[in-house]
Amino acid sequence: MSQLHQANCIAIQGRAVLIEGPPGSGKSSLALALIDRGAQLVGDDGVTLIHRAGQLIASPPPHTAGLIEVRNVGLLPFPTVHDRPVALVLTLDPDAPRFVEQAEQAERAGVALPLVRLWPDSPVLALRAELALDRHGLIAD
């Protein structure tokens, strides 16, 4: 059974990353910066999650598939990918810890996932997101 989850989601080398945070925290901006660096859009401001064979699988939500909000520009079409295993949850948090030895744990749709909090106002936020995936993300089967 699938569920709609409010988050942005991109895929990097086949692994999905959920980007969470309060409205206006920069979720879509981070997704757009990661897409500019080679990531692929799964969903903007919503993602369909399904628990399959012990993994959490992300796909675009049907009502906004292929669209991303670009602040001050509008809602724009972007190519999307489907059925990517979720490897990491990133939470944009102005109180994010400076130093992380290991990722926190989060549960989404009944699946345990690593979670890393990132300070949203960094000029190298996309790079930090990629490094967090490399260091803390689950490895795709």
UniProtKB/TrEMBL annotation:
One of its GO terms (molecular function) is ATP binding. Pfam families: Hpr_kinase_C. This is HPr kinase. GO terms for biological process: regulation of carbohydrate metabolic process. The lineage of its organism: Bacteria, Pseudomonadati, Pseudomonadota, Alphaproteobacteria, Sphingomonadales. Residues 6-79 form the HPr kinase/phosphorylase C-terminal domain. It comes from the Bacteria. Gene3D superfamilies: P-loop containing nucleotide triphosphate hydrolases (3.40.50.300). Keywords: Kinase, Transferase. InterPro entries: Hpr_kin/Pase_C (IPR011104), P-loop_NTPase (IPR027417).
